[in-house]
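Entry:
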Amino acid sequence: MSNEWNLAPAAESTSSAEIKERYELFINGEWQAPSDGNYFETISPASEESLAQVAAAGQKDVDRAFEAANAAFKPWSALPAAERGKYIYRIARMIQERSRELAVVESLDGGKPIRESRDIDVPLAAAHFFYYAGWADKLEYAFPQRDPKPLGVAAQIIPWNFPLLMAAWKIAPALACGNTVVLKPAETTPLTALKLAEIIKDAGLPPGVVNIITGAGETGAMMTAHKIPKKLAFTGSTDVGKMIYKAALQGNKKVTLELGGKAANIIFDDAPIEAAVEGIINGIYFNQGHVCCAGSRLFVQESVYDQVLMKLKRRMDQLVVGDPLDKNTDIGAINSKSQLQTIEEYLEVGRAEGSEIYQPECELPEIGYWCRPTLFTNVAQSNRIAQEEIFGPVLAIQTFRTIEEVIDKANNTPYGLSAGVWTDKGSKIFQLTKAMKAGVVWANTFNKFDPTSPFGGYKESGFGREGGIHGLSAYLDF
């Protein structure tokens, strides 16, 4: 069944987005050329066109960034906390003022639909700066009788799936606590972090308080091995997270890791089925499945399995795949060519393991990196598509009969980041949330985020929390 709606294109204008031909490193409040003179291209995954040349930081650049942050730490931490809060608040307001530009750049650089960039990423980024601006002069109330003090310089490395939002998650609490920052965005999506650097400069933040450098994994390794930072914060893959943790132990650094996930989304027979189907769609196809907490494992109670599967397939048939800047688009471009290859390899794995694949019949653009929304049925617990993080729009469906059975199945994973449960019974919700080995459990919703609520995982999904008061404690010494 193909999409029943013939929607006229409604593309967002790019006139509000100024993208420079070349971006330098933001160090000590100024744009500085890389010492080695190396640059790389950032590519639009929807058009495969080069958007900009971006500086690749080498060892000398990493040294300069940390030295600037170290020099800025003493005066920044000595500044009255209310004054620090004013700077953070100003950044939040400027994000709001430039929200349209930021949303367009986020969709161009990352491939996500403009509706998501506009309605979720950018507003949430501003909300995190607003939230932590309010905490800057209230740390003694947040942690009574504990004498909280800033740690020093924080090294922060963020992924490519939510570049602006992840930068806000990390920079805002660090500044509120009196720390200084060196942040590196992913090499495939550096532009909104560099736009944030423009905002930070325009906000008048003292030089060196926030430094944003760009580069690939080699630059990140230089950051984690550096002697100056007292704190490492990383969001990304579990394999890289393990290497960063080893580096942190050797350098006696405080560390928080938010890593991969393979979340269970559980549908009971007493759930509001229509709402649950929307929750399934949002849980796995939001941001093309490029979400560490995506509900990529669906567990449906046997008595409603046929009904849920029928409604889910019908809803998938209505999803629009295409131009990320088109306001009609539900599923944009896969972030990179290499990530698309990874997803396609898992699709072949799923077929080879004997699972049945379903994809809606929709036309994909000839240029760019695209993947139809996908689900697999007849999936076994031992199948790789049910155990390994795919990081794409791929859903693995299993059935269950009892609460005890689904708890065992849901917890049978090395990950423990998130989960969801859909039921009309509050008692089931409390039973599930207590038994699930996951940092976040959503009830009758999925992928809901708020700056006041902590987020983080267990097991191979990492440790530490971002958001809420918990997000402050990660940047404080007691």
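Residues 26 and 212 are 5 Å apart (CA to CA).
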